[in-house]
Structure formats: structure tokens, C-alpha cells
Design a protein that fits this description.
Blueprint lengths: L1 H36 L7 H30 L13 H40 L6 H28 L12 H14 L3 H36 L4 H24 L9 H28 L2 H8 L1 H32 L17 H9 L5 H24 L1 E3 L2 E4 L8 H25 L1 H6 L3 E10 L4 E10 L13 H6 L3 H27 L27
Antiparallel strand pairs: 1-2, 3-4
Helix pairs in contact: 1-2, 2-3, 2-12, 2-13, 3-4, 3-6, 3-13, 4-6, 6-10, 6-12, 6-13, 6-16, 7-8, 10-16, 12-13
Length: 542
Amino acid sequence: MAAAAGAASAELVIGWCIFGLLLLAILAFCWVYVRKYQSQRESEVVSTITAIFSLAIALITSALLPVDIFLVSYMKNQNGTFKDWANANVSRRIEDTVLYGYYTLYSVILFCVFFWIPFVYFYYEEKDDDDTGKCTQIKTAFKYTFGFVVICALLLLVGAFVPLNLPDNKNSTEWEKVKFLFEELGSSHGLAALSFSISSLTLIGMLAAIIYTAYGMSALPLNLIKGTRSAAYERLENTEDIEEVEQHIQTIKSKSKDGRPLPARDKRALKQFEERLRTLRKRERHLEFIENSWWTKFCGALRPLKIIWGIFFILVALLFIISLFLSNLDKALHSAGIDSGFIIFGANLSNPLNMLLPLLQTVFPLDYILITIIIMYFIFTSMAGIRNIGIWFFWIRLYKIRRGRTRPQALLFLCMILLLIVLHTSYMIYSLAPQYVMYGSQNYLIESNITYDAHKGNSTLPVPKRCDADAPEDQCTVTRTYLFLHKFWFFSAAYYFGNWAFLGVFVIGLIVSCCKGKKSVIEGVDEDDSDLSDEEPSVYSV
């Protein structure tokens, strides 16, 4: 038994080492991603560090879901028995470690969303005013950030004192009711308060996923398949446009050769043509640079690989969308309704992902690889959606995300949106495979009667069965993720309706992406945008 415990401990140490290497890879990716998109003219150390840190927290939090599922599954054998080392104390320690990991990461997310990111954002908004000193910038940033802190405190208080259970005694005094609330808070160790706050942010993340992720799932694969327009062809068109605009300018100026002033209408037209000419010449410089760059030739050589990736991404998107549709339809037909949050513990309608995961569980670690791929795909399509749509406040475009030309404030917005979307990712995965997210690959033993024809006798044998909602609590361990997901039924109901909206936006985005032509090789340069510069473009902007 000691040897088995030692081997298990060694395997866990190896697992945590792999997780540590994954963290280093995440930090490296975040650094490259932020440096790739941030403006070279307006880059700031504090905003860069904040963006890298926030993006890393988002990716690390998403990586905790497969780790959580793996740990609860790893404690049991496939025959339904616990492993020799997985006694009650060890199991509790593992559960507490994962729970504290969620506590830490979710607390950091609350800190980033409600304090650090707003503070850095408002600090740099004040920095745009040259007449403002450092102390004034900090005071103003704190003043606006205080509003976010108040909202966070209110969410924590509401979540802490909304009882999930009612007192048994209907005739309780007011003091007994208050005492009951504090006992509930103490027994949950603040889980309800944190869960309510995180669920509130997840609700916002759901809206962001509906807007950005659903569109990104259709736009990213089709953009990879269609590619971009030829730089040489665009340059030829641009040259023709320059000649046409120059002719218009000469025609208007010829009207004042005899010294007569131009009418107001011609002056306005002349100003518009001159602005248009400046934009076209800027496009000319960008197109010439990109046409002659080695990066364009390298991307051209990778064109078949991009098409393959595009086909792969669209297949993953279809797997995700079909599974989500069948899962939501299952909830609509077989759940207890809106009062229960449309929660179901089994699968009456099988979906492709729900059928695929049990098959992959037989070969370790294919199921965890698939879950990780879906999570990372969810995040990358969210990034693609934000890049394509930009950051809007209702009908007003605030910022655009462009390679090498993104302002610090836009990067902070990008990271905050990704933080919120990642929170919603766990519920999306649960919607696709509820039983798998709750129990992983755990089995438990049930007594089964077996009849022997030869001796006309019966015997009872323990038979392994997949863990589900009917399993005894001491036989199956629920993932810590599930505890955070379903504390409050009304959030689950909102997520259910959000899934239908997600499906609708995906279909609309797919139609729009199919109808749109190829993207310009320098998309965004022809627009009047504060994120753009007249400096020489980066070769990586293709």
C-alpha cells in the first residue's frame, strides 16, 4: 500500500509539474499576444503588465476545469473502487486544494475587474490631458474606481446573505433569522458570496460571448479559408483611386485660377478630396511595404495550412453548435422548468460531444485533451470576434483591435472582456456534457442480482456504474466547478436562454461571413481612426 501511495504521489507531482510548465507557456503566449497588438507609439509599462497579467489569469482559470475533472476522476479505479491512497482525508485535501485554487483565481478576477483594470484605464484616460499632474491622475482614477468597488461589495453582501436554505421554524424571531443567515454564511465559508459575485460577472460574460464568441466561431474559420486579397491587386486599385481623386482636386482648383474665391460648396468638396488623397497615399505606403515584405511571401507559402486549419475550426464549431442545440433542446423537453434553472442531471437526447467524451475516457488522456481544445477554441474565437467587431458602447465604436496599433485602453478592455467570457466558458462546457463536468470518469459500485441457470441460484455482485445524480455522496466526488455553477437557480435560467441567443447569433454570423468578400490585406488602414498611425507598418500586420 505504501508503494502504491508513493507511486500515486509521484504521478501527482508529475501532473503538477506539467501544470507548472503550462503556466509558463500561458505567460509566454500572453506576452507575445499583447506585444503583437499594442501600439508601438502609446505602449505603457503598467498597462502592458496589467494586460498580460489579466489575460494570463483568464487562461489559467480556463485551464483549471480539466484539472478539476482529472483530479476527481483520478481518485477512483475504473471498477468503481477508490484507489488505495485515496482515503477520506486525502480526497478532502485534494478537493480543498482545488476549491482554494478557485477561491484564489476568482478573487483575483474580482480584483482585476472591479479595481485594478478600471484604475489603470481611468489613469491613462486622465493622462491624455497634458495639463493633469500625476497626483491628480491618481486621485481621479481612484474616484471613478471607487464606484466599481462599491458594486463588488454589494454583490458580495447580497450573495452572502441570500439564504439558500430557509429556517425550519416558521415562527422564528427576527434575531433568530439574522443568526441563521450568519450561520449559513459561516458554514459555506463564503462560497455563496463569491459564487453570487462570479455568477453576476458570468452573466455579463454570457452577453459578451453571445456578441463576440458566437460571431468569432463563424468568422475565424471562414477568414482562414477565404484568405485576404492580393496586395498587388489592391495597390493597382489604389493607384487608380489616387489618380481619380487628383483629377477632382485639379478640376476644383482650376475654378480659382483667375483669382475668384471658391464657393463654400467647392471648399468643402476640396477639403474632403484632400483628406481622401492623404488616406489613399497612406494606403499606398502600407501596400508597397507589405507587397515587398518577406512576411507576405511566408504567409503565402502557409496558405494551404491556413485552409486546413479553417476546415478544422469550422468542424469544431459545428460539433460545438450541434451539441449545444441538442443539449438546450433536451433541457426544454425534460427539465423541471424555469424554477429549477432548467437543470438536468442526465442526457435524454444524446449530443455528439456527450457521446464522444465517454468513448475518449477509455484512452487516457484523450478526453482531457478534447476538453482543453474546446476551451482554447472558445477563447481564440472570442479573441477573433473582438478583433473583427471591435469594442462598442451601444452604437458608438470605442476602440478597434489592430496589430501593432491598439491603444492601452483598448487592450485593457480586451482583457476584461476575455476575463468575463472565460467565466462563462465553464457553464458552456457543462451545458454540453453535464454528467462529465460533474463527475468526470468516476464509477461507483451497485449491487446486481445474477442468476445461474445451472444451479438455479442467485447471487449478488457489485457492478460498476457511471456516477450520476443518483449515486451516494460518499461514492462519487462532485467537481468544485459544479459548486460554483449552480448555487442560484435564476442564473442557470438566464444561461439557458443565453444559449439560445448564442445559437441565433452564430447562424447570423455564419451567413454574414459567407456573404462577405475577402478581407483587405491592410484592413483598417483606410479608415479615419485614432488607433492608426502614419508610421511604417509592421510586417506582422498581414
